[in-house]
Specification:
This protein is α/β, with parallel strands linked by helices. It is about 45% helix and about 10% strand. The chain has a single domain (about 5-300), classed as Rossmann fold, CATH 3.40.50. α4 (about 125-145) packs across α10.
Length: about 325
């Protein structure tokens, strides 16, 4: 597995100065999103906390500001499982900001009972993939106006255990909560790599980078309603194996800020089995890098979201 040795000692202290740069972090009120927001604000970035619950977002701002009074933060409501909310968020951002430098597609839900989104899609696929696909497309022009702009999409080691059920995306015929979570994480990986292909072909200045946090103790594990998974992931796995959110956020922080990162790369923990450790380049599953799978998922996502990406015309 390919890893870059120069990343082995990388910590949040290595984040370059981010003064004047504008970030959107989805799911920024807790876990990896909160840790990412805190680290970016500490280095001078202006961070827009895109959260489903604005009250929780405001509490996160208060928590960060208690230790960083100079932090530049704003809270905006975004329900990724509702495409109407995604469009409203993007419209308001266009009204208030002339550019966006980095979009971090971090938010996610994990292993709920089968639930449908406002538009009738399986909830995990809707929130984890379709919402981020639509959000990225709707903000692409603001990103193109940014300074060294990037899209960071957060996947998981679980993407390697998955396949995309193109014939049963809603789980109507058969639904397994963790199986559909893994599917959504594979969709994230496929999307991030396909976005890189299309940005590169068009000559866009935007870079698409993928990241995963390894095994990190967040409310995803405790929040899953399935008793066995809650026990295995939360009560047993977290104390024994999991790293802190501040450490789990390092791969996406590296992907978002390090000047050596290139489009199309996948950044994860460099330790054993990629469960923990300093950021390193890691491998995507072959299916995630497959152009035919990327094209098929992209076209389907356009149909399901009614969002088309406005790439620059190729010269």
């Amino acid at each position: 597995m390919c890893r870059m040795t120069q990343q082995q000692s990388w910590t949040a202290e290595h984040i370059p100065d981010q003064s004047g740069r504008v970030f959107v972090v989805t799911g920024a009120n807790s876990g990896l999103g909160l840790a990412t927001t805190r680290a970016l604000a500490r280095r001078g970035g202006h961070v827009i906390l895109a959260v489903r619950d604005e009250a929780k977002g405001r509490r996160a701002v208060t928590e960060i500001a208690a230790g960083q009074p100079e932090a530049s933060l704003e809270v905006r409501r975004l329900d990724l499982a509702d495409l109407d909310s995604v469009r409203a968020f993007a419209g308001q951002l266009h009204a208030d900001h002339p550019r966006l430098d980095v979009l971090i597609n971090n938010a996610g839900v994990m292993a709920p009972p089968r639930t449908l989104s406002a538009q009738g899609h399986e909830l995990q696929f809707a929130c984890n993939h379709l919402g981020h696909f639509a959000l990225t497309g709707l903000l692409l022009d603001l990103l193109a106006a940014g300074d060294k702009p990037r899209v960071v999409t957060v996947s998981s080691v679980n993407h390697r255990q998955a396949h995309i059920r193109f014939d049963d995306l809603s789980g109507e015929r058969r639904y397994k909560p963790m199986g559909f979570y893994n599917q959504s994480k594979l969709a994230n990986a496929v999307f991030g790599r396909e976005l890189h292909r299309r940005l590169s072909r068009s000559g866009s200045p935007v870079r698409s980078v993928l990241a995963h946090p390894g095994y990190t103790a967040t409310n995803l594990q405790y929040g899953t309603p399935i008793g066995l998974w809650r026990l295995v992931l939360g009560r047993i796995g977290n104390p024994l194996l999991a790293q802190r959110p501040a450490d789990g956020a390092l791969p996406q922080l590296y992907a978002a800020t390090d000047p050596t990162v290139e489009g199309g790369q996948f950044i994860g923990p460099g330790g054993m089995a990629e469960l923990r450790g300093a950021p390193a380049r890691v491998q995507l599953a072959p299916v995630a890098a497959d152009p035919d799978t990327g094209r098929r998922l992209w076209e389907l996502s356009e149909q399901l979201t009614d969002v088309r990406f406005a790439f620059p015309a190729t010269v």
